[in-house]
What we know:
There is one protein chain. This protein is an alpha+beta fold. The protein is built from 2 helices and 5 strands. It has a 5-stranded mixed beta sheet with strand order 3-2-1-4-5. A hairpin with a 4-residue loop joins strand 4 (53-58) and strand 5 (63-68).
Amino acid sequence: xxxxxxxxxxxxxxxxxxxxxxxxxxxxxxxxxxxxxxxxxxxxxxxxxxxxxxxxxxxxxxxxxxxxxxxxxxxxxxxx
Length: 80
């Protein structure tokens, strides 16, 4: 899936001005977009892919929020 630590941004036109809104959307499993590849990912994808950290760009790409992911925590069941 990804090599290293992906740098991501809000997906589908979402932009962020502060850390609180980023964390709320991340924990709600909303999609983000890889800044390099354009691939979409969310918290569940990162857990499945054993990605332990992502860097989220915000504030017009002038700031970065690193988010550590507990890949050992339980995944939410997916809808069938």
